[in-house]
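Hi V.,

Quick status before I head out on leave. The structure for the redesign project is tokenized and pasted below; the design run finished overnight.
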């Protein structure tokens, strides 16, 4: 699968779009370059929310790898978004070209960095990485797949076995300027705990709530108004972690005072009145003379 990004990420094709090498190469040849800004954090979130879903072709049993190719320093918090992917077991390779920030590449990439971080001076030099990167990627997939297979032989519950271990149908409701309510349908096998992680999509410190496995809803409070939040609900078992639910929603703006009225006018005073704004503790009233020629 492939997505391009600037200020707005764009999916070019999903994992399930092509089934042969020739089809993929033809798609690459027809790709049109998308210029613009460098919102890498938003792009990584797009990959997680849109491209690594089963309906986009992501298979539960397959290793998840993301290769980031960038020619500049991110204009948002790429490290936070990358950490979210890595926490979910997704491995990130970071490739920089020209003006890429190597320190940022090393923050974003998975360990070991000597295998996952690459930087070249110009685009034509990317061809020199292809052979090595291909070998590293294939080896990493084999290593990780082998660990999963070996590990599941001695575990009661393997990782990511779909509906048995994964909640479904995340619903976000009762959204206000500083709170929202999450609810979901529990998996067939109840987990020991749920980890609910939420943070602003434009960057910010992730916050986490841990719930008992019998609970299937939570109220998130003390949020920032008019802010887009990413939320994930991850079921945790004694020996495994199920597939998480993910969603995105925006809190409402703070309520405003309404119906401003002016009365009791005199040569040097006037009275203002309005309908109160819900939850407001103070008001700031600003007054200035209208410019010459404007309506009083």
């Amino acid at each position: 699968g492939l997505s391009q990004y600037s200020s707005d990420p764009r999916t070019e094709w999903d994992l399930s779009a092509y089934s042969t090498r020739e089809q993929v190469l033809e798609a690459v040849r027809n790709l049109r370059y998308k210029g613009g800004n460098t919102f890498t954090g938003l792009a990584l979130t797009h990959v997680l929310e849109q491209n690594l879903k089963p309906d986009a072709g992501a298979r539960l049993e397959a290793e998840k790898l993301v290769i980031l190719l960038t020619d500049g320093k991110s204009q948002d918090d790429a490290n936070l978004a990358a950490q979210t992917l890595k926490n979910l077991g997704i491995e990130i390779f970071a490739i920089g070209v020209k003006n890429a920030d190597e320190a940022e590449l090393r923050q974003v990439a998975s360990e070991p960095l000597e295998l996952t971080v690459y930087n070249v001076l110009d685009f034509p030099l990317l061809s020199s990485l292809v052979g090595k990167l291909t070998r590293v990627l294939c080896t990493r997939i084999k290593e990780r797949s082998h660990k999963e297979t070996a590990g599941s032989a001695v575990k009661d519950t393997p990782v990511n076995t779909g509906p048995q271990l994964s909640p479904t149908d995340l619903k976000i409701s009762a959204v206000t300027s500083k709170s929202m309510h999450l609810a979901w349908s529990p998996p067939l096998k109840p987990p020991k705990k749920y980890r609910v992680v939420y943070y602003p999509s434009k960057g910010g410190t992730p916050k986490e709530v841990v719930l008992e496995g019998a609970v299937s809803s939570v109220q998130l409070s003390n949020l920032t108004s008019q802010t887009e939040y990413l939320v994930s609900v991850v079921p945790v078992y004694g020996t495994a972690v199920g597939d998480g639910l993910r969603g995105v929603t925006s809190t409402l703006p703070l309520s405003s005072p309404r119906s401003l009225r002016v009365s009791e006018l005199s040569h040097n005073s006037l009275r203002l009145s309005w309908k109160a704004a819900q939850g407001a503790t103070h008001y700031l009233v600003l007054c200035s003379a209208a410019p010459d020629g404007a309506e009083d």
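Above is the designed sequence. Residues 176-251 form a domain with the Immunoglobulin-like fold (CATH 2.60.40.10).

G. will cover questions while I'm gone.

Best,
W.
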